[in-house]
Amino acid sequence: MNWQKRARIAVAVIGFGSAATVYFLLGKRLPPPAQVAEPARDPQATNETGPGDMTFRQANGDVVWNARFDSSSSYSDGRMKFVKAHFVSPRGSQPLELWSDEALAKKRVGAGEGSGDVVLTGHVVVQTASAWHIETGAATYEEVSNLVRMPGAVTFKHDSMSGSSPGATYDREKQIMILLAEPHVTVVPDAAGAEALDATAGRITIDRAAKFTLLHEQARITREREVFSADDATLRLTDDEKSVRAVELRGHAGVTPKRGAVNPPPEMHADEIDLTMRPDGKSLHTGALRRQASLTLMGSTGASRIEGQTIGFGLAADGQTLTKLEASDRVALALPRTADTGARSITAETLSSTGDEKAGLKELKFDGKAGVVTFTEAQPAAGSTPASTRTGVSKLLTLKLDGDLGAVTSAEFRRDVEFTKDADVTGKVTGTADRAVYVEPKAGSTARLVLYREGARALPRVVNKDITIEAELVEIDIDSNDVTATGTELPVQTVTKPASGGAGAESKPGLFASGQKIIGTGAAATYRAKAGETIYTSSEKVRAKVQQEDGKNRITADKVTVTMETNDLTAVGRVISQFTTDPQPADGRKGAPAPGAPQSYEVRAATMKYTDARRIAHYVGTKDEPAEIKNQDGLTHAQTLDVYLDADGRNVTKLIADGLVYTLTGVREATGDHLVWTAAVGTQPDSYTFTGGKAVVYVKEPKQPKPAAGKPDCNWSLYHTVTFNSDGDVSTPADGPGRITQLERPCSVEIPGKQGGL
């Protein structure tokens, strides 16, 4: 019958073929069907046959279908029904085989013989040349669209892949298969090394021509090391379709390491994520995250997390070690707490990095662009040490790494650097510079911040409690707040407020005037925060010096130590101590200073120690260079000098000199072993009490009136002990020996002991 000759089936499903296709393409006939029992007749059929085979062609002679069946029925409307049908279509580039319990072929629309749409029911099987095997309960082939629709439950298998779906469609020409309504796809490892995979979604599209699989709506892909999730996900396959070469996640995208996996990838989240895989399809190679992005990595010290609007990264062959990291737009990096450091966070506008496959990440570079980079470390409480926060701000920040994010070896801040640490028992610390390097603590050492001067820019500055330190190089011990400063071209300078007696109390005067800043300079300075102590040292070019703001009171030496908490001070080596007392009250004494005029002193010694609790400055000289004190009234030198200050001010109340003592007051000279000088009190003049010790006291005075020329013009008086005062009075102890003798000598002859010996 003509309409039977025109019947052909044009089915396109996934583009698969088989050996049967080759058979039909070669034009060979099918073997004769097996003999079966005569089927029951269909009263509506116009013709019925038993087992047989049939070839349907297009008008141009091309084969559309080769069919084999157990029976067939023809109807007046052009339909044909086949029982136990087996169709083979060699048409196009993807031959196809179909089996079904029953097939209903509708009349073809257009030129050529054979059928149009075909409805398959009852155990439908689709077999392709590329070994895809699909089973379902019903299917429809649409000739115009070349689409196979499978509305019921579908199962399929291809090499190591298998799956199921409540429905599916297949576009034969485009080789696109769509799994509908919550499909489930699994891949088991095979001999070729295919990665195990379990995938679910609202819908899955498999495009074999373009080598990708698209998962729509709540996509979830579980692999051996990680889980991919997103609103939509695309898996791009290698040419042999054995491995995934790239993954694209869109909408609520995430990659989560699988629990217990060996060398899992970083955890990541973003609106969009693009990933590339290593050639084996198992390990991640690179990634790009966009919008609300975050990346969490496990390192040697714990989990590190980076956030930004965009993040790019590269991984080593282990799929875990970072070799590259980039981020931009509100970048935030959180580093875990370690045994030596607190938890840290860094914010910036952009982040770039350097690294390689062998060493991992070597450094991270943060740029504040129009803003700043902020580095924060939260140090937890430890024992009696309270918790604290350390913050560094700059335009640029570079972290040196030892392979991963948690292994920071140093942090370098550049341009407009400001570092602060919360106040603790040693005070708040603030450091500013144009360049600073934060050196990580190691076993047995503490964290240090080193501030550098760049070119002719401003000197680095540190403010620690009441002291400000400026130098070309400043180093801060972050844990103790101790500071070390050095200079090469410029001296170190410090500015310190005098210590106070307590909150709201007036500053104690000490050696320096109350209310005045204390200026310290030297080739180097060390500040010990807990002790409130600053040590200044000299070089060949720069002498250590501490002075009050107006310059009147100062100490110069090879080394000067100031303890501001106690107002104590020590100096060692070529000491020069200069100080001016507070204004003196008028006392009405003859020759006394004018009302209000202060006394100025200069002391030279080998060492000096001032103890504020005792209000004593102790100076020590040497045999060759004795300690010496002088003011406008005269001078005294001895092996040791003890200068006593009053409790309420900085007035000298007493001087005790010991060992080879020499004094000059006005025109009177005296030597002895021990001297006690006491300051004037009220109307009482100041007095000098000399004791000879093993030797005797010599007192030398010009004769009054002056004798004739050639006559001795000075009297030398010898005593065991003698007291004289500024009024000219001389006395000896009432219960002791008086003057031993008196000699006359020319004034040009030096008194014994003046040069340090008796």
Topology (SSEs and partners):
Layout (H helix, E strand, L loop, with lengths): L1 H4 L13 H7 L21 E3 L2 E6 L5 E7 L1 E4 L5 E10 L6 E12 L7 E14 L3 E11 L4 E4 L3 E5 L2 E5 L1 E5 L4 E5 L3 E4 L9 E4 L2 E5 L4 E12 L2 E12 L6 E14 L9 E11 L6 E16 L2 E14 L6 E14 L7 E14 L3 E8 L5 E7 L8 E7 L1 E8 L4 E17 L2 E13 L8 E5 L8 E4 L2 E4 L2 E5 L5 E4 L5 E5 L21 E5 L1 E5 L4 E5 L6 E5 L5 E4 L1 E5 L4 E13 L19 E12 L4 E5 L6 E5 L2 E5 L1 E6 L6 E14 L2 E11 L8 E5 L5 E6 L11 E6 L1 E5 L4 E2 L7 E7 L13
Antiparallel strand pairs: 1-4, 2-3, 3-5, 4-5, 5-6, 6-7, 7-8, 8-9, 8-10, 9-12, 10-11, 11-14, 12-13, 13-16, 14-15, 15-17, 16-17, 17-18, 18-19, 19-20, 20-21, 21-22, 22-23, 23-24, 24-25, 24-26, 25-28, 26-27, 27-29, 28-29, 29-30, 30-31, 30-32, 31-34, 32-33, 33-36, 34-35, 35-38, 36-37, 37-40, ...
Q: Which of globular, elongated, flat, extended, rod-shaped describes the shape?
A: rod-shaped
Reported by name, the CATH topology of the largest domain is lipopolysaccharide transport protein A fold
Approximate strand percentage? over 45%
Spans of at least 5 consecutive residues whose pLDDT stays below 50 are 1-30, 501-506
Mean pLDDT: 84
Textual characterization of the structure:
This protein is mainly β and 758 residues long. The chain folds into 5 domains: 1-181, Lipopolysaccharide (LPS) transport protein A like domain (lipopolysaccharide transport protein A fold), CATH 2.60.450; 189-263, Sandwich (lipopolysaccharide transport protein A fold), CATH 2.60.450.10; 283-418, Sandwich (lipopolysaccharide transport protein A fold), CATH 2.60.450; 426-565, lipopolysaccharide transport protein A fold (Sandwich); 581-745, Sandwich (lipopolysaccharide transport protein A fold). Helix content is 1%, strand content 57%. It contains 2 helices and 56 strands. The chain has a 56-stranded antiparallel beta sheet that branches. Strand 50 and strand 51 form a beta hairpin. The longest helix has 7 residues, at 19-25. It is rod-shaped and about 175 Å long. It starts with a helix and ends in a 13-residue tail after the last strand.
